[in-house]
């Protein structure tokens, strides 16, 4: 495109010089006259300085116009290059942000899993505490039953002793002493039973506390899981909205470029071809940078056809011919790249969405 503009400027300059020389020659009289015998005459050719100045001025103005046109073309080219670089940086930032969001979501998932394991461990400990409390309650109940049985047995013995005391006055003092001791023992049994009942009540309270802790842990785990799911949905919605906004902005930009392209005339086709070739070279370089080269690939070639989306994502890649092993490695390299840069020009994008490339190891 650049060479064509330089050639046009050179042709315009040569044409203007030729026109000036033609006008000068047209104003001069080169007709041959035979000498007249009557005397010597001198014919002079008059060149109008105003006309020459006017023609020179026109040439200068045309040169200036060509120069300004060249500057405008360079300026438009620089703007297109800058826009392409901005788009590339924006795409790189978007990919980096998506990767960061993915890592964060994975981290949150791991944390939720750790929280779930912690809750499970707490539930296990609560169940163990509940089991121990129930066992303690059973032991306390058994001890209370034993104490009650002993108390009844001793009470029966006291009653029997009282009967013996009635029967044997001689043994009255001994029986009274035995009765007193039996009463003391009964009081001890009553105290033991009361203590056992208190311990059973404490064990039941511990069981209820462990059950409450288990229920609270389950509630916190459910809240944490619900919060993580809601956050993941919100981030996915934000990412989708951002993608839609970017696509709308690109569509507006492509519509403006299409209107401008219609005014460029025959040079438009050449520009598209140059851009397609330039981006094809970039794609080949990106593929070769990710290509795992083997010694057997030396001197081989692989012909690929890539089908891309409007934003450069790889939709499909097929082999059109060439070395099979090299083509498999080239396909793997395309998958590693996954997304290729795209220009702002929709016509160039249309050509690049179905592009054929010849890959050769460097």
Description:
This protein folds into 2 domains: 55-260; 267-359, Fusion Protein Consisting Of Minor Coat Protein, Glycine Rich Linker, Tola, And A His Tag, Chain: A, Domain 2, CATH 3.30.1150.10. The protein is built from 6 helices and 3 strands. It is mainly alpha-helical and 362 residues long.
What attributes does this structure have?
single chain, 362 residues, Fusion Protein Consisting Of Minor Coat Protein, Glycine Rich Linker, Tola, And A His Tag, Chain: A, Domain 2, 2 domains, three-stranded antiparallel β-sheet, rod-shaped
Number of strands: 3
Could you say which structural class the secondary elements and strand pairing correspond to?
mainly alpha
The helix count comes to: 6
Low-confidence stretches: 29-39
In one word, what is the shape?
rod-shaped
Strand content: 5-15%
Specify the biggest β-sheet. 3 strands, antiparallel
| Total domain units | 2
Mean pLDDT: 81
Rg over alpha carbons? 52 Å
The arrangement of helices and strands along the chain is HHHHEEHHE
Distance between the termini: 29 Å
Give the helix proportion (percent range): over 70%
Placed side by side, the strands forming the largest sheet appear as 2-1-3
